[in-house]
Specification:
Layout: E1 10-11, E2 21-23, H1 47-50, H2 56-63, E3 69-71, H3 74-83, E4 88-90, H4 92-98, E5 103-108, H5 119-131, E6 136-141, H6 145-157, E7 161-166, H7 167-172, H8 174-182, E8 186-190, H9 196-204, H10 212-225, E9 229-231, H11 238-256, E10 264-268, H12 273-287, E11 294-300, H13 305-308, E12 310-315, E13 324-329, H14 351-358, E14 364-368, H15 370-384, H16 390-409, E15 414-419, H17 427-434, H18 445-452
Parallel strand pairs: 5-15, 6-7, 6-9, 7-8, 10-11, 10-15, 11-14
Antiparallel strand pairs: 1-4, 2-3, 4-5, 12-13
Bound molecules: pyridoxal-5'-phosphate.
């Protein structure tokens, strides 16, 4: 019935509905994620122990399980205004193409030059570091979106930056290097000879294409060994999910303008930040018993941390230098194959999302194979006029499957998914799909078992 309502293709939030606070889901979780542990003592980590790694404001946000709404600093709001609110798009053309009675919406985060949602957290992370007088930042990047977003944020706040980029992606996407250098940052393919961790990994796995976990180890080592330098991370952490709540808050406000509410919410999950941000305010409704949307996390079959991983304490990095977090993990020693969706090649998953999934509040995790993902990506590009990132296309793929189910059952469900970014730097992946040279690598149980055996033993 409401299909006839006059809902525009693109819903833009008016100024007065733009969120001025982030939402901290932990304040409403009846059971919190297990605390981070000191990797040496296995004691519960204290906020002060994070200070050598993260700046103070971010260390505080990381540990803050109580404050429900946190003010977005004025300077961050000003930057957000250049690319936010991001549009919420009703996928009329896709609906028509599929012949589904479902209503499909997607929140499009690829509207800024960095091309993804990552800028939402890059800006506040650099802002707080600048406020505290930090002299330089280090980070890792997988596919390159985070490195790009962070280099833009660092250029904006005039902050020196070194980026460790996963070697496979560095070679697949040479223009990422150019854009990061255009913004004035220094970029190094990982594993590298510039850190102890990098040298050790190269010795153990010569010729490895690297992984996010390994690049994290190098960036952390580089930060703690330099003076007055700090490390920043683009996903997984509680602080990043907090910043990404802007995505969900805007989506919810935009849907409310038209009395819409999603029955199904879908997002791709690498480290969990876009999904965590998108679902946050809707999860609040579920936790309060007001609504019961169905949440689906989508991951690549090549790196299936939620669908085949263990819920256990693990290191956030391959070099085992970070604190331990309780999360769904494939083991920090897991070396993912060179799946093209570089942003989803991470061994672990946000502790918040892991806990919600473990408790059955995040309803489902689904693993999808790469060729099927690209089929959806190409179809989407042809009817919606946006070239999606491979990561985002995981969410498209499941949204399409759900819409087809609605067609079969005749149900008029409302589907919301996160379209996290654009795929302009992923054309070699598109090309290999179009040439039929793309493969679907799925790790065997033995592959997974090997990495599970190295999980830290916690009493
Ligand atoms: C990094 C990235 C992801 C995955 O990261 P999450 O933290 O899981 O959101 C998804 N899509 C795009 C476009 C990305 O750049």
């Amino acid at each position: 019935m409401s299909n006839n309502k006059n809902i525009p293709y693109r819903i833009n939030l008016p100024e007065e509905l733009i969120p001025r606070q982030w939402y901290n889901i932990r304040a409403d979780m009846k059971e919190l994620p297990d605390p981070m542990l000191n990797p040496g003592t296995h004691e519960e980590l204290k906020e002060e122990e994070l200070y050598p790694i993260f700046c103070k404001a971010l260390s505080h946000q990381e540990m803050d399980n109580k404050t429900r709404y946190i003010d977005i600093p004025e300077s961050v709001i000003e930057f957000y205004k250049m690319c936010r609110p991001s549009p919420l798009i009703r996928a009329y053309c896709l609906e028509k193409e599929l012949g589904t009675p479902a209503k499909i919406y997607y929140k499009f985060e690829g509207n800024n030059t960095s091309g993804s949602h990552k800028l939402n957290s890059a800006i506040p992370q650099v802002y707080y570091a600048k406020e505290e007088g930090i002299d330089g930042l280090t980070t890792e990047t997988g596919a390159g979106q985070w490195g790009t977003a962070l280099s833009m944020a660092c250029a904006y706040y005039k902050m020196p930056l070194t980026v460790y980029m996963v070697k496979t992606s560095y070679n697949q996407k040479p223009y990422r290097k150019s854009i990061i250098e255009t913004c004035g940052a220094n970029i190094i393919p990982s594993p590298s000879e510039t850190t102890n961790v990098g040298r050790a990994i190269l010795e153990k796995f010569p010729g490895t294409g690297g992984s996010l976990g390994c690049a994290i180890s190098e960036a952390v080592e580089a930060a703690v060994t330099a003076t007055n330098s700090r490390y920043v991370l683009g996903s997984v952490l509680n602080q990043v999910l907090l910043h990404q709540s802007i995505v969900g808050l805007e989506s919810k406000a935009a849907m409310e303008m038209y009395d819409e509410y999603p029955d199904i919410i879908i997002g791709c999950a690498g480290g969990g930040s876009n999904l965590g941000g998108l679902i946050a305010p809707f999860m609040k409704d579920k936790l309060e018993g007001k609504r019961n949307p169905y949440f689906i996390a989508v991951e690549p079959a090549s790196c299936p941390s939620m669908t085949r991983g263990k819920y256990a304490y693990d290191f956030c990095d391959t070099g085992k230098v970070t604190p331990l977090a309780k999360m769904y993990t494939l083991g920090c020693g897991f070396q993912p194959s060179s799946n093209h969706a570089g942003g989803l090649r991470y061994h672990g998953m946000s502790p918040i999302l892991s806990k919600l999934y473990y408790d059955g509040l995040l309803d489902e995790a689904r693993a999808v194979e790469q060729t099927k993902v690209f089929e959806s990506a190409v179809n989407f590009a042809r009817c919606e006029g946006i070239l999606p990132a491979p990561e985002s296309s995981h969410a498209i793929c499941v949204a399409v499957d759900e819409a087809i189910k609605c067609k079969e059952s005749g149900e008029e469900k409302t589907i919301l998914f996160g379209l996290t970014g654009t795929g302009y730097f992923d054309m070699s992946a598109y090309e290999s799909f179009l040439n039929n040279t793309m493969s679907d690598y799925i790790p065997s149980d033995e592959d997974l078992q090997k990495a599970f055996e190295e999980l830290p033993k916690i009493n």
